[in-house]
Amino acid sequence: NVMACNKMLILCGPTYADRLWCVWELCTLFSFMRQDLAMERVVLVPMNSPDCNVMENLSNFSIANAHCYDPNEENRLRKVISAVGEARFVKQVRDLATAMAS
Q1: Which positions ≥6 away from 92 have C-beta within 8 Å?
Q2: DSSP string, 31-77
Q3: How many other CB atoms sit within 10 Å of the CB of residue 99?
Q4: What is the DSSP letter of 15?
Q5: What 3-state DSSP class applies to 8?
Q6: Which bin fits 85, alpha (ψ -120 to 50), beta or left (φ > 0)?
Q7: I need a surface site. Which of 13, 42, 56, 63 has the fewest CB within 10 A?
Q8: Which residues of 5-29 are buried (b: 16+ CB within 10 A; e: fewer)?
Protein backbone atom coordinates (compact mmCIF):
# COMPACT_ATOMS: atom_id res chain seq x y z
CA ASN A 1 0.00 0.00 0.00
CA VAL A 2 1.54 3.25 -1.18
CA MET A 3 -0.20 5.24 1.56
CA ALA A 4 1.35 3.19 4.36
CA CYS A 5 4.91 3.96 3.23
CA ASN A 6 7.13 6.62 4.76
CA LYS A 7 8.96 6.99 1.45
CA MET A 8 8.15 6.05 -2.13
CA LEU A 9 11.24 5.16 -4.14
CA ILE A 10 10.83 5.79 -7.84
CA LEU A 11 13.51 4.37 -10.11
CA CYS A 12 12.54 6.49 -13.06
CA GLY A 13 13.85 5.25 -16.39
CA PRO A 14 13.19 6.42 -19.93
CA THR A 15 9.79 4.69 -20.18
CA TYR A 16 8.46 5.56 -16.70
CA ALA A 17 6.15 8.40 -17.82
CA ASP A 18 4.74 6.22 -20.61
CA ARG A 19 3.76 3.30 -18.34
CA LEU A 20 0.31 3.95 -16.91
CA TRP A 21 0.75 1.58 -13.95
CA CYS A 22 3.84 3.54 -12.88
CA VAL A 23 2.17 6.92 -12.98
CA TRP A 24 -0.92 5.36 -11.40
CA GLU A 25 1.09 4.87 -8.21
CA LEU A 26 1.85 8.60 -8.21
CA CYS A 27 -1.82 9.35 -8.82
CA THR A 28 -2.71 7.25 -5.77
CA LEU A 29 -0.20 9.06 -3.59
CA PHE A 30 -1.25 12.55 -4.76
CA SER A 31 -4.97 11.79 -4.53
CA PHE A 32 -5.04 10.90 -0.86
CA MET A 33 -2.76 13.50 0.71
CA ARG A 34 -1.74 17.10 0.29
CA GLN A 35 0.73 17.67 -2.51
CA ASP A 36 3.44 19.02 -0.18
CA LEU A 37 3.26 15.89 1.99
CA ALA A 38 3.30 13.62 -1.07
CA MET A 39 6.37 15.44 -2.39
CA GLU A 40 8.17 14.81 0.90
CA ARG A 41 7.57 11.06 0.55
CA VAL A 42 8.84 10.74 -3.01
CA VAL A 43 12.47 9.78 -3.56
CA LEU A 44 13.00 9.97 -7.30
CA VAL A 45 16.13 8.43 -8.81
CA PRO A 46 16.48 9.36 -12.48
CA MET A 47 17.87 6.51 -14.57
CA ASN A 48 18.93 8.69 -17.48
CA SER A 49 20.35 7.28 -20.65
CA PRO A 50 22.40 9.13 -23.27
CA ASP A 51 19.30 9.62 -25.43
CA CYS A 52 16.78 10.34 -22.67
CA ASN A 53 16.43 12.89 -19.90
CA VAL A 54 13.93 11.47 -17.41
CA MET A 55 13.22 14.78 -15.69
CA GLU A 56 12.43 16.35 -19.05
CA ASN A 57 10.02 13.48 -19.78
CA LEU A 58 8.25 14.09 -16.46
CA SER A 59 8.23 17.86 -17.03
CA ASN A 60 6.38 17.25 -20.31
CA PHE A 61 4.20 14.45 -18.95
CA SER A 62 0.94 13.80 -20.78
CA ILE A 63 -1.56 11.21 -19.60
CA ALA A 64 -2.44 10.62 -23.27
CA ASN A 65 1.01 9.08 -23.82
CA ALA A 66 0.81 6.66 -20.88
CA HIS A 67 -0.45 3.15 -21.66
CA CYS A 68 -0.84 -0.36 -20.26
CA TYR A 69 -0.08 -3.63 -21.99
CA ASP A 70 -3.66 -4.75 -21.30
CA PRO A 71 -6.25 -2.36 -22.82
CA ASN A 72 -8.87 -3.44 -20.26
CA GLU A 73 -6.59 -2.42 -17.39
CA GLU A 74 -5.81 0.83 -19.18
CA ASN A 75 -9.51 1.66 -19.50
CA ARG A 76 -10.10 1.00 -15.79
CA LEU A 77 -7.16 3.13 -14.71
CA ARG A 78 -8.12 5.97 -17.04
CA LYS A 79 -11.65 6.05 -15.59
CA VAL A 80 -10.32 6.43 -12.07
CA ILE A 81 -7.73 9.04 -13.07
CA SER A 82 -10.46 10.90 -14.91
CA ALA A 83 -12.62 10.89 -11.77
CA VAL A 84 -9.69 12.29 -9.75
CA GLY A 85 -9.04 14.90 -12.43
CA GLU A 86 -6.65 14.42 -15.33
CA ALA A 87 -5.52 18.04 -15.50
CA ARG A 88 -4.84 18.12 -11.78
CA PHE A 89 -2.86 14.91 -11.94
CA VAL A 90 -0.78 16.01 -14.94
CA LYS A 91 0.07 19.23 -13.09
CA GLN A 92 1.14 17.26 -10.01
CA VAL A 93 3.49 15.03 -12.03
CA ARG A 94 5.00 18.06 -13.75
CA ASP A 95 5.33 19.85 -10.38
CA LEU A 96 7.13 16.77 -9.03
CA ALA A 97 9.64 17.00 -11.88
CA THR A 98 10.19 20.69 -11.19
CA ALA A 99 10.65 20.07 -7.45
CA MET A 100 13.09 17.19 -8.00
CA ALA A 101 15.13 19.20 -10.50
CA SER A 102 15.65 21.99 -7.92
Answers
A1: 26, 30, 35, 38
A2: HSS-HHHHHHHEEEEE--BTTB-HHHHHHT--GGG-B-SSHHHHHHH
A3: 14
A4: T
A5: strand
A6: left
A7: 56
A8: eeebebebbeebbeebebbbebbbb
User: Can you name the residues that pair with 19 across neighbouring β-strands?
Assistant: 67
Tell me phi and psi for residue 12, to 5 degrees.
-100, 105
Instruction: Write down the pTM of the prediction.
Output: 0.79
Q: Could you state, in chain order, the average pLDDT of each consecutive group of 10 residues for the chain (102 residues)?
A: 81 89 85 85 82 82 94 94 90 84 73
Cα 21 vs. chain centroid, distance in angstroms?
9
